[in-house]
């Protein structure tokens, strides 16, 4: 009986000792804490990626019961498609223009919000609303704002005289034929870029605001004592110190711009005449709406090297900025 009792008492002690050793071992504890995240990424990203890779090497379609291995045939067909070339070009235009605007506007907003003023909490609330609201709901709202018949933008352009007359004199606006924001190729691309900037601006602003608030106040005080003006302070102190965080914000923005298609799906569905088609939307319309899963998978896989290259370049730049 004594032996059994000693064994029962010793078992919890052994488990407690193992637990304490695990908590003291930072390497093993770190791996244990990262395991759920790695498993989540493997299931959420890894399985679809390998499934898309498998589909792209076959001739599978929606509803087909059999599939045949065709090698790189689908990739060869996709590359020589005019729509794919246009979508690839639009992807880079959409990503670079939107991220340039987001970076400039987010920097301006972050510099304004880092100051103390009355009603600051309300301004922060308004800036965060586009990010908090569901993007599908926001895109539907923009669909009404940019509608060819019920557009509030066109109503302002036509009925507000102090807006209409300068634009009419410059030859930009014809009040009898207001612009069709989603019906003309150039205006449609400008519209989806505008909505995308509106959506991502809050995230970039918050990231840059966190970077600005992390700069020690002593540095600003020393620059003020040395007589540094606003522009010198901005380009020689603020931007270099916030550069690594800015690069991270741009990296996230590029990932969203390359992979997100909700705005395009709701507003234009890639039209007119595929002028707003990007790789993500083209892959969806080809694979899901068109039923050609193999070709849709092949198109979607072109995003992978682009994203890997962008992540590698931006992370190396961020690392060098941190070192310097």
**How many strand elements?**
0
Radius of gyration, whole Å: 27 Å
> Percent helix among the residues?
over 70%
The termini sit apart by 69 Å
Structural class: mainly alpha
What oligomeric state best describes the polypeptide chains here?
A: single chain
Question: Would you kindly provide a written description of the structure presented here, covering whatever features stand out?
Answer:
The chain is built from 15 helices and no strands. 25% of the residues are buried. The chain starts with a helix and ends with a helix. It has helices at 2-24, 26-56, 73-79, 82-113, 120-132, 135-145, 152-159, 161-169, 185-213, 217-225, 230-259, 262-267, 279-289, 293-301, 303-323. It has 324 residues and is mostly helical.
List the helices and strands and how they pair.
Elements (H helix, E strand, L loop, with lengths): L1 H23 L1 H31 L16 H7 L2 H32 L6 H13 L2 H11 L6 H8 L1 H9 L15 H29 L3 H9 L4 H30 L2 H6 L11 H11 L3 H9 L1 H21 L1
What are the salient characteristics of this protein?
15 helices; 77% helix; single chain; 324 residues; MetI-like fold
What's a quick, concise take on this entry?
This protein is mainly alpha-helical and 324 residues long. Helix content is 77%, strand content 0%.
């Amino acid at each position: 009986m004594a032996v059994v009792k000693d064994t029962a008492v010793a078992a919890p002690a052994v488990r407690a000792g193992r637990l304490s050793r695990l908590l003291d071992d930072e390497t093993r504890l770190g791996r244990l804490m990262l395991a759920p995240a790695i498993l989540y990424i493997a299931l959420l990203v890894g399985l679809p990626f390998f499934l898309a890779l498998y589909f792209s090497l076959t001739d599978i379609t929606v509803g087909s019961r059999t599939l045949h291995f065709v090698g790189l045939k689908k990739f060869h067909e996709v590359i020589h498609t005019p729509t794919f070339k246009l979508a690839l070009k639009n992807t880079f235009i959409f990503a670079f223009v939107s991220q340039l605007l987001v970076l400039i506007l987010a920097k301006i907003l972050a510099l304004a919000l880092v100051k103390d003023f009355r009603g600051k909490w309300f301004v922060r609330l308004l800036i965060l609303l586009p990010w908090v609201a569901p993007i599908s709901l926001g895109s539907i709202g923009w669909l009404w704002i940019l509608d060819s018949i019920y557009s509030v933008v066109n109503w302002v352009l036509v009925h507000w005289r102090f807006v209409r007359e300068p634009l009419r004199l410059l030859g930009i606006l014809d009040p009898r034929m207001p612009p069709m924001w989603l019906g003309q190729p150039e205006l449609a691309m400008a519209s989806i870029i505008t909505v995308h900037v509106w959506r991502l601006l809050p995230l970039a602003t918050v990231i840059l605001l966190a970077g600005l608030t992390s700069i020690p106040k002593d540095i600003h005080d020393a620059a003020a004592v040395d007589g540094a003006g606003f522009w010198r302070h901005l380009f020689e102190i603020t931007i270099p110190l916030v550069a690594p965080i800015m690069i991270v914000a741009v990296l996230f923005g590029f990932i969203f711009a390359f992979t997100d298609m909700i705005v395009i799906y709701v507003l234009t569905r890639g039209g007119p005449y595929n002028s707003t088609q990007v790789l993500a939307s083209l892959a969806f319309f080809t694979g899901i709406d068109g039923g050609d899963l193999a070709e849709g998978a092949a198109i979607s896989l072109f995003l992978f090297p682009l994203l890997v290259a962008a992540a590698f370049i931006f992370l190396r730049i961020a690392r060098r900025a941190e070192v310097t």
